[in-house]
Design goal:
Strand content: under 5%
Largest sheet: none
Order of helices and strands: HH
Low-confidence stretches: none
Number of strands: 0
Structural class: mainly alpha
Helix content: 55-70%
């Protein structure tokens, strides 16, 4: 990896994390304003807090999962070196003189 590719990866990681953090903070801010404006309606407050927690946890989990898979794929690619492409295996040919449609099975003897 060259120096510019490493810097690009660092920038992508920083700005991705920044985007997740900003979105999480904005979700929390909207939830706090929603709870503050309801002034004690507990059933709706629980719904707002549950939705906010779900949104924050799924956003963070998605980012961390995608980042982990990306890092794993990158390390496997770098460790393997340049990939050598192999030609695909040939498909088996049908035997000469027979149709592709199988013959029906013989009926079972009646007892």
């Amino acid at each position: 990896m060259s120096g510019t590719e490493i810097e690009l990866e660092k920038d992508k990681a920083k700005f991705g994390l920044l985007a997740v953090m900003v979105s999480n903070v904005s979700i929390v801010a909207v939830a706090v304003v929603g709870v503050w404006r309801l002034k004690g309606d507990t059933s709706v407050i629980v719904g707002i807090l549950t939705a906010a927690f779900t949104a924050v946890s799924s956003m963070t989990t998605a980012y961390l999962g995608i980042k982990a898979v990306s890092n794993t794929a990158r390390s496997m690619t770098l460790a393997a070196g340049p990939a050598q492409q192999q030609p695909p295996a040939p498909a088996p040919a049908a035997p000469a003189g027979t149709d592709a449609i199988p013959a029906p099975a013989a009926p079972a003897p009646a007892s």
